[in-house]
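note to self: dont lose this again. the chain is below, predicted strucutre after it. 509 aa total, dont forget to put it in the shared folder this time
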Amino acid sequence: MSTIRKPGLLSIASLLGCLAMTNANAQSAQPPLNDSEKALHVLNRLAYGPRPGDVDAVRRIGIKRYIEQQLNPDSVPMPADLTDKLSALSTYQLTPPQLYQQYGPPSFPPNTATPEEKNMARQRANKEITPQVHFARLWQATESPRQLQEVMTEFWFNHFNVFEGKEWVRYWDGEYEKDVLRPNALGNFRQLLGAVAHHPAMLYYLDNWLSSGVNTPEAKGRFKGLNENYGRELLELHTMGVDSGYTQADVISLARILTGWTIDEKGMKDGHPGFVFNPRRHDFGDKVFLGQTIKGSGYQEGEQALDILARHPATAHFVAAKLVRYFVSDQPEPVLTEKLARRFLSSNGDIKAVLHTLFDSPEFWARSNYQTQFKTPYQYVVSSLRATATPVLNVKPIDGVLNQLGQPLYGWLTPEGYKFSEEAWLNPDALLRRINFVNSLSNGKSPIARGEMPAPAGTMPNAVGPADPQQLIQTLTPTLAPYSLSTIGAAPANLQVGLILGSPDFMKR
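---
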């Protein structure tokens, strides 16, 4: 990469190589985490890392109280300036019908329009919806004090992934995150599962809106035939997990059960909700699903199937293992996974109760699981912005670096969503790209902190100065090990911030 041949970057890369070797050779005892380490641990796992003053603030209020606050996000006031910024995002406030009316087919020019006019109409969503959705996600990730809610919103977006680049999904993915995932992120799994199943973003992404029972009255044209996509992913990725005992016959039965669950195109033109059950495309035959007979009754069949899936032990285990992988270790610890699965079942899928059990577990607090998880590109970028208190005034450079690092916002094509493991993200090219990114944060020249539009004549442009390495060290204490601090302290002042943010210590959480 030509961008890493700059002298500063070469120096940082060389020093980081030495630092990594020192880390690899360092041996340490395994005492319990002290109070500062516990504060950092919850800020790295329940949040996207500390902002200036956060470690001390968590120590002051107490670890348990901080966790309780995070588990109850409505108890944490939102900053007025953040609320005002979100409210000013005009397209972010629109409902699914309004988004469809203003940006979807109803807004497209007539057939007599030129190809250029038609293409411009279809690009409006990219230009007007997408940047606002990205601003909303990044502002809340970097500034919201309800950090666990943001972490779990991202977690569930990956669990119930939709791809922004699939045509109509772009109209709705931001609203899907805002009104379905975020409000239910710490709620009840069955309620979350149902809200996802009814949303036009998911119905469109996995093609259930096209699915029709064989020989039903309106099974024609693009709606002709049974589509198994959503039924398959609902079993494999959203609930039970692969190799959990369901069969291809169960996939087909679930697809038949969900025929007629579709998008109300005509109704949305008049402001009606995006979901509708169309009985004229539903297969009313009886079905056998996971060993249970479901009588052909219409819409209620789908709700019954979702009830079965939400209560299934395999679903409890699948969700529990994903939570352990996210919050504790890349390799799910069987004892903890089973404990969380039991809590999931006994609480009827209460996500908050399951997380409470997780955060109370000795495995969560074990030093062997402290500072061991390699940050995903998104976690790394957001934690860097938080640690340096860099204001997000321009999303384009963030989108650019996330694209380079392989984790564009809302950009995973297939239904399984992004992985969170070290294996997925640790490679030499990615490390160099991360160093390149944080170098711009360290010298105060990052375009992220400058608005997209030039400053008016006679005014000073938005800018932040170079990050202060001493303040950054104070913010990240005790992220940095003593041998890291020695290497950083011996380096030239203009390289220290890059060394801190590019260090093996900061790469992990």
